[in-house]
Amino acid sequence: MNSVVAGITYRAVLGRRRVLLLILLPAVLIGLAILLRAVGSTDERAAVTLMQVYAIGTMLPLLGLIAGTGTIAPEIDDGTIIHLLSKPISRPVIATTKFAVAASLLAVFAAVPTFVAGYILLRGEAGIAAGFALGSLVGGVAYAAVFLLLGVITRHAVTVGIIYAVVWENLVGGYVPGARNFSIQQWAQTFAAEISTSDFFKATVSMGFAVPAVVIVTVGAVVWAGQRLRSLSLTGDE
Fold first, then answer.
1. Average pLDDT in the chain
2. Is residue 208 part of a domain?
3. Residue 223 above 50 pLDDT?
4. Within a domain: residue 238?
5. Cβ of 143: how many Cβ atoms within 10 Å?
6. Angle at the Cα of 234 (from 231 to 235), degrees rounded to 5?
7. pLDDT score, position 75
8. Structural domain contains residue 34
9. Domain count of the chain?
10. Domain encompassing residue 209
């Protein structure tokens, strides 16, 4: 990891309009938790539904898309990546650094708010707050790697990412039994279920599959992104 590249990336991502979405999406989650608490709908079923449908099912992939593509796609689009690639820095190191930045942003804007929302609803009951926070963290790491890779291999990363998140993760991965094994969202819920003891929440993917899947996808995507950066010429053409 390169601290200079990390600093530049943080400033670039947090200095654009996308930071508003990084703040807005978790703010909505916390707002919904406060609303449910205020009206007395703080049973386990309501909390689990909010965590599954919004925190893991909607907020996490969108934040992953914003953070993952935002660390590198804009630089490739406007050509400023060439200045970075011209420096004596290994391209795999650049990819790894960009990934670390994206993953850390997801830890702050996804995992922490998920824990806060869960705690507002049920405190530490049934391990829902801690479980879904862990799921958000693990899922966020995988999303950061996948969307970083998309930002490197296509100039339509946001469009492709939205299609992936909506069609594959929410529709195919959410409702087709066999496809669930290949859904980051489902892997995140598996990790959440390891801590949560709620009777209203059961994982559909085994831990024995989810752990190696997260590792393979994350490492594979970051390595691929680093290799893909090697093919970018200093003239800005791929």
1. 89
2. yes
3. yes
4. no
5. 33
6. 110
7. 84
8. yes
9. 1
10. 3-230
CB 51 within 8 A of CB 128: yes
- How many Å apart are CA 213 and CA 115, to the nearest integer? 24
pLDDT-based confidence at 31, cuts 50/70/90? Answer: very high
How far is it, in rounded angstroms, from Cα 61 to Cα 101?
Answer: 16
Q: How far apart are CA 182 and CA 79, in angstroms?
A: 34
Per-residue pLDDT band for 173 (boundaries 50, 70, 90) equals low
φ, ψ dihedrals at 70, nearest 5°: -65, -20
pTM of the model: 0.92
Q: What is the dihedral of CA 68, 6, 93, 159, to 10 degrees?
A: 20
Residue at 95 is within a domain: yes
Q: Report the pLDDT averaged over residues 113-122.
A: 95
Alpha helix (H) residue ranges in the chain: 3-14, 18-39, 44-50, 60-70, 73-78, 81-85, 91-106, 112-122, 128-153, 157-163, 173-175, 184-195, 207-230
**Position 234 pLDDT exceeds 70:** no
